[in-house]
Amino acid sequence: MNTSVIVTGFGVTAPNGLGTRDYWSATLAGRSGIDRVSRFDAGRYPSRLAGEVSGFAAADHLPSRLLPQTDHMTRLALVAAELALADANVSPGDADSYGMGVVTASSAGGFEFGQRELQNLWRHGSRHVSAYQSFAWFYAVNTGQISIRHGMRGPSGVVVTDQAGGLDTVAQARRLIRKGTDLVLAGGVDGSICPWGWVAQMAGGRLSRCDDPGRAYLPFDARAAGHVPGEGGAILVLEDAEAAARRGAGPGYGEIAGYGTAFDPRPGSGGAPALPRAMELAVRDAGLSPGDIDVVFADGAAVPALDRIEADAITAMFGAGRVPVTVPKTMTGRLYAGGAALDLATALLCLRDGVIPPTINVTPEAAYGLDLVTRRPRTAPVRTALIVARGEGGFNSAMVVRRPDDE
Amino acid sequence: MSQESTATPRMTAEDLLGILRTCAGVADDIVLDDKALDTDFGSLGYDSIALLEVTANLERTFHVDLDDDAIKASDTPRDVISMINSR
């Protein structure tokens, strides 16, 4: 019998809400955080919308010591981690610092910081480059900063699998806990809304060029034409259920019941997409069958060929229209390494409250055969949720979470 | 690299404390005032990278060349003020 791993807390920094309460009320109300890019002048770029965490003043949340050495997305990650620990009622200083680890996902690192320092280098010379450039741009920086700030010296790491990363870190945390670590912070907070990050994302060819926030990101819609990028994500506290009980923590939000991951075949090789296999592995790992799954949080690429692959995977597993499907990231944009971590937190809130948040703006394309929850939230008895995430480059991951009282 | 002025301004305590605040911030339990001038940088919460950042800023502001290890964690702000002003 494997150790049961539960989520005892999480912190959210999302474009439509800073902190879990604001995020969840906005998400149930269908309130979007997607708008014109404000962080730089995107007027002459082909894509001009983003999901930005608005109203975030880092100095209100972090000690001044951390400001000169952190990129914007690291500041958001530090806030998410602090909120997560508070939510779980954990003070790392009280416990064995080697019994607590940190695993975060990253797609790019601190691009805004890096761009500024490269500009300093070429405009002014090497003496003008910040010494903090030595780590602030680095993709592992969030793990390091969270670990240092909270004195968490247990097994740690970083996972770089684009949008799948949020789930892959939680799977890695579960492995570490099963090997004997009591508590691991996992998840992802990401974002590179700056010219350097923007052109890199444009090169991927999947950014929407629509200027209307209500029509720019439409997964599973006949009008789907790419996604809107965003920033933010979630950090979660994962614990050995028995260790959590020993310290008097409650049952938590839910159990990480199953996980599966599979890599796509080489493009052009004619091999079948690996997404169905990742989903099957996750459900099997949870000891469940598809009929036991109450809701699917879809990846929702909003690229027609990718929507088709995901819809086919869902209907093959469950039957057409047989399971509610939702894409709340229509309200935030795709958050890269932060996206699936936020979906996981959202799925746990859905389990807690028995309400499935909506997919906004989308008119479902009937040919996909999905029961997409649109317009308003749907009340439903939800005991289990399947979260699906794909990263550019062939990553496919899926995770099953189960209510704490559902054995 | 161009310099706007070749005259070397004298550095005041307030100059240095301002540079510390800008380049490296202030730790939660530290008050960065005149009393801190005789406390070593390590005790003020500044690590080697913070001191490297401060060193680069001093070079740019006061038009001096300093080695990367010119400021050590065992030095105090007053040590740095006299080092810069003796050049």
UniProtKB/TrEMBL annotation, chain A:
Query: Where in the numbering of this chain does the Ketosynthase family 3 (KS3) domain appear?
Result: 2-403
Q: Which InterPro entries match?
A: Beta-ketoacyl_synthase, Ketoacyl_synth_C, Ketoacyl_synth_N, PKS_Beta-ketoAc_synthase_dom, Thiolase-like
Give the GO molecular function terms.
3-oxoacyl-[acyl-carrier-protein] synthase activity
Do the record's keywords include Disulfide bond?
no
Q: Which residues form the signal peptide?
A: none
Family recorded in the similarity comment? Belongs to the thiolase-like superfamily. Beta-ketoacyl-ACP synthases family.
Full protein name: Actinorhodin polyketide putative beta-ketoacyl synthase 2
From TrEMBL, chain B:
Q: What is this protein called?
A: Actinorhodin polyketide synthase acyl carrier protein
* Assigned keywords, A-Z: Phosphopantetheine, Phosphoprotein
Pfam families for this protein: PP-binding
**Gene3D superfamilies in UniProt:** ACP-like
InterPro entries (UniProt xref): ACP-like_sf, PP-bd_ACP, Ppantetheine_attach_site
Taxonomically, the superkingdom here is Bacteria
Carrier domain location: 10-87
